[in-house]
Amino acid sequence: MRIGIVCPYSFDVPGGVQNHVMDLAEALIGLGHQVSVLAPADEDSPLPPYVVSAGRAVPLPYNGSVARIAFGPVSTTRVRRWINRGDFDVLHVHEPLTPSLSMLAVLCARGPVVATFHTAMTRSRVLSAAQGVLQILLERITARIAVSALARKVQVEHMDGGAVEIPNGVAVAKFAGVDPLPGWPGECGPGTGGALGFLGRFTEPRKGFPILRDAFVALARHRPGLRLLVAGPGDRDDLYERFPAELRDRITFLGLVSEADKARMLRSVHLYVAPNTGGESFGMILTEALAAGTTVVASDLDAFRRVLDGGRAGRLFPTGDSVGLHAALAELLDDADGRAALTACGDQVVANFDWPVVARRVQEVYAAAIEATDGRVIDQEWAEMG
Amino acid sequence: MPGMWWVVGTALVVGLVAAYLIWTAGRVERLQARAESAARALDAHLLRRAAAAAVLAEQRFGVELYAAARIALDAPPEEREAAENDLTRQLRAVVLDPTDPACAAVVAASRRLALARQVHTDLVRDARTARGRPLVRLLRMGRRHEWPRYFDVDDPTLAVPADVTTG
Q1: What is the DSSP string of A46-103?
Q2: Which of B27, B37, B48 is the closest to A372 by Cβ?
Q3: pTM above 0.95, yes or no
Q4: Nearest CB to A352: which of B45, B111, B164?
Q5: What digits encode the pLDDT tens for the residues A351-378?
Q6: A265 min Cα distance to partner chain B (Å)
Q7: ipTM given for this complex
Q8: Which CATH number is A2-169+354-383 given?
Q9: CATH level 2 (architecture), domain A172-351
Q10: Touching check for A159 and chain B: CB below 8 Å?
Q11: Do the domains A172-351 and A2-169+354-383 match in fold?
């Protein structure tokens, strides 16, 4: 099958949607399809061979953050040319409701269009003024995919249409085999040692870092050798100031990490802690921790409970409860067998999120979109191919 | 010559209105055609699932499932939704073994049917919204076609352990 994928955001900056598009494209190529990805990118930036640049992206303040997107007459011409040359069986656009290449591609497209909605954004500010424009856009889309239950709920309630829920994939191979950081995770026995991990912006209240801090401080006083590994954007001194002076040498701060270092970081701890208090629609980081084979302790949010299979693949603690987190950490650090049981179940769960499996489900949506456009049913063997 | 401007202005307005009407008519036609294609695809997937279920019933589960599959295959249009729902219930009642090819075929057919149903529902909604607009109704655009109809059945997805893991 010839597949054209449109990514609205520039590959020059890392981001969730960009990673999703690249991993999906590679998985589809692995299944034997011809894939072309159109994305904004600087002329001289190195791109994978399947990516076609649509020119430089312009930073635009949009929906409360700065997005680097391409939009305008020049981009329209390039999108149209790419679509005409590509002769695609199906066009797959991501986030088509932001004014971007994706929106242009939807407007230029004639054949079957599949759209993936990533964020749980209700509707964009630009389009809220123009319901009619939104309708013209939406009715050109044949099939819709939502990456989380929350994103799907928004589709159903606000955009008057259903969507197939297909979760984000995780490239299990990129996480499973890597080496931990030197000197990590270290010893972990009953009453002593152990390494905890946290990834994210520790200053953001919704990430719940203060809950982990309280639990860590209480636990570290009675548990010699317990260490904490923190990665994410933020200031080193700001982080250390949040802890009592005698515990500061037990905390390591990595700052912002690359994808490769993220995998190493996740492999470097005994327990990955996700104390978030809300605002998570999917819990990508949990699937990554599971793929790395690390035991997960997470707050009891809807999204997390789904990923962790109701608590079979990782320990859940009451959201916002540092005492509950403390108890869960103390118990699991002492119980190597308990950790192994959770990781074993985690391996099974994460197999459902492996990219080749996810890509096969996306491929079935492509088939449904093509069928709905010309009314002929694609052969079972063809759809199951790969 | 003020009269000249009247002529130009009127011609312009008429032109714009005509362009809008042509575009709207094309839109209604396009959505109508797509809803009809989706209905044909949905029909094909319903037949596939019923056929796969009949094969499975002959091999393993016997009369009741076979009867449900036969009724779904032969049902007249007005009874079809109920017959398909009944088949879904029968399939949910049996324990499917994902390693058996006949079972796997039914599970795969059900998954594809669920997608076809979802897409069909969305496209029918789009087509009906377009036809329901006051201007479209007034000019009776698309009157050569019947109104697209929803096919109202339960979600046919079968929950099978290790279903997705095996791909």
Answers
A1: ---TTEEE----EEEEETTEEEEE--SHHHHHHHHHHHHHH--SEEEEESTTSTTHHH
A2: B37
A3: no
A4: B164
A5: 888 898 899 989 999 998 998 887 666 6
A6: 27
A7: 0.85
A8: 3.40.50.2000
A9: 3-Layer(aba) Sandwich (3.40)
A10: no
A11: yes
